[in-house]
Design a protein that fits this description.
single chain, 260 residues, alpha+beta, Topoisomerase II, domain 5, three-stranded antiparallel sheet, two-stranded antiparallel ribbon, 9 helices, 7 strands
Length: 260
């Protein structure tokens, strides 16, 4: 006859189970269910205040977002994504005297070489630089449906683009080492830290951006008025804002308007 198995655990099993949550002497466990990462020779664990670490990390993140994505550079009025699109199109030869190319090609090449943050964001930035209702003076010559204030553009595989003649004034003399170059994100090529910009694009086209803890909203102005004011400021470095407002009467929004 087969012997009936006992429901009572053996002594060996009970002894083994009683040590659960512990550990061998000198191991990762302390015998009370807690654990500690093993340290290499010369390593140490330093206690920090949570509040201090949060403040430092938030500041680092905010500065990174401001510098890398959200706010424009006052020197050329461009955010990094806009600058990289214009630079890439110039490097690829998509200039005003060349045929239009598919926007999908521009978007993909910019993402691969300079801006690895998603093709959707790059295409939106490309289209915005072509929309006459978004920029007072567009920088991209667009071919296709770029949308309206109420509706989005056609997909990038259907639309085409090339640089606008005005964009070439942002790039003028860049081959003469007028600006510094820096490595791209993976170190395989270089990109400019800023474009030479023969005209004050930040005042001409304005900019909007939301960063971490701050934002900017600069209205666009008339190109001719800004150039006249710039020339006056060059000849009269001590000119006041009131003096410059004789040339620049106020913002000049791309959608226009009527005063009744």
């Amino acid at each position: 006859m087969a012997k009936k198995k006992s429901d009572t655990p053996s002594k060996a099993t009970a002894k083994s189970g009683g040590k659960s949550g512990g550990g061998k002497k000198g191991g990762a466990g302390d015998g009370n269910g807690s654990s500690q990462l093993p340290l290499s020779s010369g390593d140490s664990v330093q206690p920090i205040q949570l509040q201090e670490e949060m403040e430092r990390s938030f500041l680092d993140y905010a500065i990174s977002t401001i510098m890398s994505r959200a706010l424009p550079d006052v020197r050329d009025g461009l955010k990094p994504v806009h600058r990289r699109i214009i630079w890439d199109m110039d490097q690829q030869g998509f200039r005003p005297d060349r045929p239009y190319v598919k926007c999908a090609r521009v978007t993909g090449d910019t993402m691969a070489r300079y801006h690895p943050h998603g093709d959707g964001a790059i295409y939106d930035a490309l289209v915005r630089m072509a929309q006459p209702f978004s920029l007072r003076h567009p920088l991209i010559d667009f071919h296709g449906n770029y949308g309206s204030p109420d509706f989005g553009p056609a997909a990038s595989r259907y639309t085409e683009a090339r640089l606008h003649p005005l964009a070439m004034q942002l790039l003028a003399d860049i081959e003469e080492n007028t600006v510094d170059l820096m490595p791209n994100y993976d170190g395989t090529t270089e990109e400019p830290t800023v474009l030479p910009a023969r005209f004050p694009n930040l005042l001409v086209n304005g900019s909007q951006g939301i960063a971490v803890g701050m934002a900017t909203s600069i209205p666009p102005h008339n190109l001719g008025e800004i150039i006249d004011a710039t020339l006056h400021l060059i000849d009269n470095p001590d000119a006041t804002v009131k003096d410059l407002m004789k040339f620049v009467k106020g913002p000049d929004f791309p959608t226009g308007g009527l005063i009744l």
